[in-house]
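Today's session is about reading a structure prediction critically. Students often jump straight to the picture, but the first step is always the sequence itself: look for stretches that repeat, for charged clusters, for runs of hydrophobic residues. Only then move on to the predicted structure, which in these notes is written as discrete structure tokens rather than atom positions. Here is the chain we will use throughout the hour.
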Amino acid sequence: MSGVRFTFGEGQAGEVETIALDALMVRLFQGIDEANVGWLLALDQRLRAAFGAALIDTVPSYTTVMVQFDVLSLSPGEARERVLRAVADLTPVALGGGRKHVVPVWYDPSVGPDLPRLAELSGLAVEEVIRRHCAKAYKVFALGFTPGFAFMGLVEPALAAPRLATPRQRVAAGSVGIGERQTAVYPSVSPGGWNLLGRTPVTLFAEGKSLFSPGDSVRFHAVDRYRFVELGGDVTPLGGVS
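Below is the predicted structure for this chain, in token form.
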């Protein structure tokens, strides 16, 4: 089904499309960019206010925000009109208000088996890969895949690496990885195809709540094995869970 087009900002083109009887997808951008985050967070806030009691949920992503609504309260046409009113005069929110996190990581091939290969692909020493991965704060773009899994970026081009051709059946909780120019932490044991660099002892999802939210910033901090264990980290080699 074709969508309804609209403009926002300085003449940028967006689109709202029906994806289910009770859900609309609002697209602002076509490509991933850190500059998108402020716009998407502003749209998320506008949609929550516009739908009010009729809102079931919103799901921000890299380029879109999905809005799910109560069909007993709103027809799809009425919901679409609320979206179009929400995007009128949209301006991005300032990103300084998101929470800032420092995440300790033990970078080691026993828990990050792709670290040596990523160093080889980039032409950098392992120590330099670690330094560069820790050198910047990454914006949280979206949550998804599994509860608490935060898609973050963007890593510098030298560290970018394609996802594994054959995903691992099981990746340990706390595993830190890179997929293309994104980086993330696996919050729980799950399948996964990202390039694994190390592991954090930090719990990312507990009691139904995620540690990270879209708009937050995350900086990784390298620690040694002793500190990792002291913080409660699991040193079981990935071979024990893959």
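Discussion point for the tutorial: The chain has two domains: 4-93, 97-240.
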